[in-house]
Amino acid sequence: MPETTRERLTSGGWKELEFGPFRDAVTIHWIRPFEGDQPGVALLKYEPGASVPRHRHEGLETILVLDGVQSDETGDYIRGSYIVNAPGSEHSVWSDTGCVVLIQWDRPVKILEEEIA
């Protein structure tokens, strides 16, 4: 089986995979890490209440919600939702309930510094 194959992701197969640190209360399972100009593909697991600060997409990002609900400023995305974030778009992401998403980034995102008033 190729190293990039993961089985039964939409039916809970992700529960059998190992996740490592990514951000506070968000863990990652790399399916294919960034390499040169190749996109990164991973699973992200958000604990309830976890968030990722406002960031800009330097390339195309696509997300499939496998479990739970992921949210951003434009809405809440339930299991089965497919989200496309265009290059140059900005948002923050959170999950009140916790969630698992399959994500592909063409390029790493840029975390934006919050302005201090």
Could you give the topology of this structure?
Elements lengths: L19 E4 L2 E7 L7 E7 L3 E7 L4 E8 L1 E3 L2 E3 L4 E4 L4 E6 L3 E7 L4 E2 L6
Antiparallel strand pairs: 1-2, 2-3, 3-10, 4-9, 4-11, 5-8, 5-10, 6-7, 6-9
Can you give a write-up of this model?
There is one protein chain. By secondary structure, this protein is mostly beta strands. The chain has a single domain, classed as Jelly Rolls, CATH 2.60.120. Helix content is 0%, strand content 50%. The chain has strands at residues 20-23, 26-32, 40-46, 50-56, 61-68, 70-72, 75-77, 82-85, 90-95, 99-105, 110-111. It has a six-stranded antiparallel beta sheet, with no helix packed on it. Strands 7-6-9-4-11 form a five-stranded antiparallel beta sheet, with no helix packed on it. It starts with 19 loop residues before the first strand and ends in a 6-residue tail after the last strand.
CATH level 4 superfamily: Jelly Rolls
Under CATH at level 1, the class stands as: Mainly Beta
Count of helical stretches: 0
At CATH level 3, the topology is: Jelly Rolls
Q: How much strand content do the residues show?
A: over 45%
Overall mean pLDDT score? 93
Structural class: mainly beta
Work out the count of structural domains.
1
Count of individual beta strands: 11
Shape: globular
Radius of gyration: 14 Å
